[in-house]
Amino acid sequence: MTEFTIRFMERSDIPAVAALEAEVYSTPWSPRVFFDELAMDNRRYIVVEGPDGIVGYGGLLIIEGDAHITTIAVAPEMRGKRLGVRLMLALVDEAVVNRARHLTLEVRVSNTSAQGLYERFGFEPVGRRKNYYVDEDALVMWATDIDTSDYDDRLVQIRGSLGEVEV
Question: Which pLDDT band, with edges at 50, 70 and 90, does 164 fall under?
């Protein structure tokens, strides 16, 4: 079984992250954007690293009791290994540690598999942003009250589905 490590992104990870970004997104962020993001105190970026390098990453913006998932990606050849679920757990955990009460994100209207993942984490559609992705609208989704015991129970269930046990 392949071992994956989830950890905070470092500056030295940016070339690999930017290469993955260019592979996954039609309008990718430049390496400079990632450098700038890492330099900000209210940003948290996480990577998933396997034996052959970085295979996923995600970012979080924390502001005034809320958090916004800025980006999340898993290498196409690594999809189906539940790395997206593990990334989301890490991002949600980081939001909670930083006292966020609510989480928000945007997702392509056509990306129904990502929407399904987000719904599992309690995200619900609340609106649309026209042409957010230049060529497509974004669905705006929110997960509220992530600082409650009910939401914690949801995370325990998700972890349990991965075979992870709460200690």
Answer: low
Domain that holds residue 113: 5-161
pTM here? Answer: 0.92
Q: Which amino acid is at 166?
A: E
Look at the chain and report how many structural domains it folds into.
1
Q: What CATH number did the domain enclosing 120 receive?
A: 3.40.630.30
Query: Which of these is catalytic: 37, 94, 106, 151?
Result: 106
Tokens linked to 62: 């924390």
CB contact at 8 A, 158 and 143: no
C-alpha Rg value of the chain to the nearest Å:
15
Q: Which of 118, 119, 133, 136 is catalytic?
A: 118
Q: Is 106 among the residues known to form the active site?
A: yes
Tell whether the model's pLDDT for residue 167 goes beyond 90.
no
